[in-house]
Amino acid sequence: MSVEFVSASQAADAVACGAPLRLVDTFGRVARDLRVSLTDRCNLRCSYCMPPEGLDWLPTEDTLTDDEVVRLIRIGVDMLGIRQVRFTGGEPLLRRGLEGIINECSHLRTDEGSPLDLALTTNALGLAKRAQGLKDAGLNRVNISLDSLDPEHFAAITRRDRLGDVLEGIEAAARAGLSPIKVNALVLRGMNEADLPDLVDYCLDRGIELRVIEQMPIGPPDTWDRQNIMTADEILHIMGTRHTLTPAPREDPHSPAGRWIVDGDPTKRLGVIASVSDPFCSACDRTRLTSDGMVRSCLFSTEETSLRDLLRGGGDDAQIAARWADAMWAKPAAHGLNIDTFARASRTMSRIGG
Ligand code: SAM
Ligand code: SF4
Are the CB atoms for 147 and 161 separated by under 8 Å? Predict the structure, then answer.
């Protein structure tokens, strides 16, 4: 028997009875997609994400160990119906134990009996050397962040002159057979919107899906201005400069990206993630774990729940699962970006895990 709708107190009862839980919220959404932040540190300083001087990094002792990360993921998969895990950060390639964590997770089986879908979101610095090892460890696919192919614009946005490393990382990911490869780009008005057509062609030439994300108010406070962000409509218009774009049928109801077919060829696609102008909260199936072991039900949560304290305090798997289910039960209907009472998230993007 599986329990689809549980209240906070019923979660503990369900675990006690041995009934499998699901991460359900009061609006009936079921979380299947776990985002795991492996570090809050990063080797780039993208202007929309981090201040130039970086942030006060979490002390090492506050960060989950590799074994703790794997244990929480196992609880999520074995007891809570998680089917997909994406490792992120900060920069997840800075985590030395990444390959080992992936390898442990590759042995887990979902409630449907299939292997976990294991994905990585990365800036690709160092990926050239590690792509094959990550593939061998069990990584399936990778999203790489790249905002411009113009070295000067890349360096201005990321505050580091590392475009060549990113491009080498993308080539290595393809050689290693990581698939699909997607490129995530963020467009800043007056900075890189004119670079978008070249980025579209670079991705199309390599069979990569480009997905452009509207900038969200989750970086340094002075870097977001609602009136000035590039909207999905504007982005789409520029992406279509050299190509004919037609809407693609929505295959995954939980995907945040609106997708378009390029020049009538269904194998060529690109996407726009309109988190601000057209939020996808009602279809959101994500649950998030920060590198210090906090569950967040939404990127924009102002509250979070510690699993690390319970885990380090001797909590058993069932207790941890029940606390996780409780935290997700309270997931808000929407992030509220477009209402007057919107409150900024209690952490910035790199500390949550994007
Ligand atoms: N460091 C890795 C990377 O850049 O891919 C993983 C973490 S990063 C926080 C994950 C994603 O968040 C990146 O694709 C980045 O572009 C996106 N991101 C960061 N700040 C953002 C913001 N203010 N609005 C929208 N997306 C943002
Ligand atoms: Fe680092 Fe990713 Fe944030 Fe850029 S977007 S500063 S690469 S965490």
Answer: no
